[in-house]
Amino acid sequence: MARLERLRVFPVKGLAGIDVQAADVLDGGTLDGDREFALFDPEGDVVNGKRTQRVHELATDYDPETGTLVVETPAGESGEFVLPRERQRAAAWFGDFFGLDLTLERDARRGFVDRREMGPSVVSTATLETIAGWFEDLSVDGARRRLRANIEVSGVPAFWEDRFVGDDAPAVEIGDVRLEGVTPCGRCVVPGRDPDTGAVTPDFRARFVERRRETFPEWADADAFDHFFTAMLIAEVPEADRGRRLRVGDPVTVLDA
Fold it and tell me: H helices then E strands: how many in the chain?
């Protein structure tokens, strides 16, 4: 049976995610606690993995109950900050690490997701398993950490999430929350790097595109995909379903178009 296997939010944009057992859908359509904080330079540009590989050097953990962020560098230097109360002190610590003048901003209504008019990202466990099999020494958890999805669904085939975009695509219901597909997620440079070291996997994009083309599912609408360097669905929660809660273990049902 298809079920919500895993929920993951990323408290600070660009840094590591945390698994949660439940997450409310915010009024803005995203998940509570996802990309709630983000580091910005004076020009308003965000600091994330697309900008610098150095984000991969940082080991972080976050306690959603207390708002405590713990961060450590490879050299053993560490910081601990209670957010949002200590945003200024945290920004100074990260600024010293990156060599930039930074501020740590907060958006509790929608978060600093890349596509701010859209909602959570969705992937199947089988997709992660398949992608991991394309690369030597890439584990399923490694693929999970590279793709950085919010919602992981088990009990469905690989690339199951591709069916929710394109003409006459169905919607999906998780528990009592309806999600509608908006776009396949075109990937950036981040999935091609080791999430712990930032080391680049040789020929990652070329191999990914080749295997994605070879295994593209027959149920997907190819016209909805601009290219084959895609994995994951970006979904939208209708306004009527916002404020509801997603829970690990919720049943997943495909709805008629």
Answer: 4, 15
State whether residue 111 is helix, strand or coil.
coil
Q: Are 25 and 118 in contact (CB under 8 A)?
A: no
Dihedral of CA atoms 199, 187, 120, 107 in degrees, nearest 10, equals 70
Coil, helix or strand for 94? helix
CA distances from 53 to 14, 110, 185 (A): 10, 26, 21
Q: How far apart are CA 143 and CA 122, in angstroms?
A: 14
Overall average pLDDT of the 38-58 stretch: 94
Q: What is the pLDDT of residues 66-121, one digit of tens each?
A: 999 999 999 999 999 999 999 999 999 999 999 999 999 999 999 999 888 899 99
User: pLDDT tens across 175-202, in order?
Assistant: 999 999 999 999 999 999 999 888 999 9
Element (H, E) at 87: helix 87-98
Query: Domains (ranges, CATH) in the chain?
Result: 3-30+114-255 (2.40.33.20), 37-106 (no CATH)
pTM: 0.96
